[in-house]
Please model this.
Amino acid sequence: MTFFSAMIIPIIISIVLFIGLKEKKNVYDIFVDGAKEGIKITLKLFPTMIGIFLAIYMLRSSGFIDFLVNIFSNVTKFFSIPSEVLPLILIKPISGSGSMAIATELMTKFGPDSNIGIIAATIMASSETTFYVIALYMSQAKVKNSRKIVIPALLADFASIISAIIFFNL
Amino acid sequence: MLNYLWPIFIIISFVFAIISGNIENLNSSIFESIDSVISLSMTLVGTMCLWCGIMEVVKNTSIMSKLTKLLKPVILWLFPDAKYNKEALDNISINVVSNILGLGNAATPAGIKALESLKESSNDKLSLSDSMMMLIVLNTTSIELIPTTVIAIRQSLNSQNPASIIIPIWISTIIGTIVGILSTKFLIKRSKN
Model:
C-alpha cells in the first residue's frame, strides 16, 4: 500500500512528460509557464484563509466548538463518528475554506498521521462544497423545480464520510 | 452571508471565552491562526506551482482528448437522454476530465456550457432534466486524481508520507460518487412512475 501510494505522483508526472516529449512539445517552457498560475491561486486564497482560519481558531480556543460537540455527542456515538470531526462534517457541504481551516486545525492538534488527522484529511478532500456547487449550477439553470437534487448530493457526501470513518476504524 | 456569519462567529467566541475562562487561549489562538495560514501557504504555493505546471503540459498535449474519448461510454450511460446532443456531451466530457485532473478553472465553464445546452434540448424548461441532475450531482462529488491542497496541508504539518492519503481519498470519493449516481438514477426512475 505504501509502495503503491508512493508510485502515484511520480508515475503521473513521468507519463505526462513522456507524452509531451513524444508530441514534440517544449515541455520545460510549458511547465515553467504553467507553474506561475500556482502563485496566483495561492495569493488569491490567502486573504480568505486569514479570515476563515481566524474565526475557526477563535471558535475552537474559546471552547465553543467543544461545547457544541458535547451537545451532539449522542448522535455521533450512534453513527460511531469520532466526535472531534463533527464540526468538519457540518461545515464541509457549506464552505470550502471553512472545512480547510477545521481540517488543518484537527491535523495540527492530533497530528497529520493520527487516525483523526487522516479521517479529517479524507473528509476534507473527498467531495466538493456541495451547496456551493448546487447554488452555482441552479443559478445558471434558471429553473423552478430542482427535483430534490440536494438529496442525492448529500447522500453522496454522507456515504464518503462514513466510508472514510469505517476505513480507519477497521 | 459571510458578512454576518464571520463577525458573529468571532463575537460568540469572545463572549464564550469570557464565560468559560478561556480568554488567554483565545488571545493566543489569534496569532496561531495567522502562523498556521503562513506556514500552510508556503507549502501550498509550492505544491500548486508544481501541479499547475504539470497540468499546463497536460493541456498542451492530446491527453485531454484521449481521456475524453476513453470516458465516452461511461458518459453515455450516465446521460442517456443527451445521446444526440453532441455539444452537451463534449462539454460534459471536458467537465468530468477537468474535475478528475483538478483543473477547476476549466471544469466550471465547461459544466455551465453543458448545463445550458442540456436546457435547450429539454422539453420542460421549468425543472431540471435528468441529465442536468446527473451533471450537478457529479460536480458535487467530483473525483480528483491528486488532491493537491490536502497533500500540501499534510506536508506543512510534517507528515511522514503526505501523499499516502491519496488512496483513502480515492476510495471514499468513489464510494460517494457511486452513491450519488445510483441515488440520482433512483430519483429519476421514481419520478417517471
Notes: Chain A touches chain B through 96 residues (CB under 8 Å).
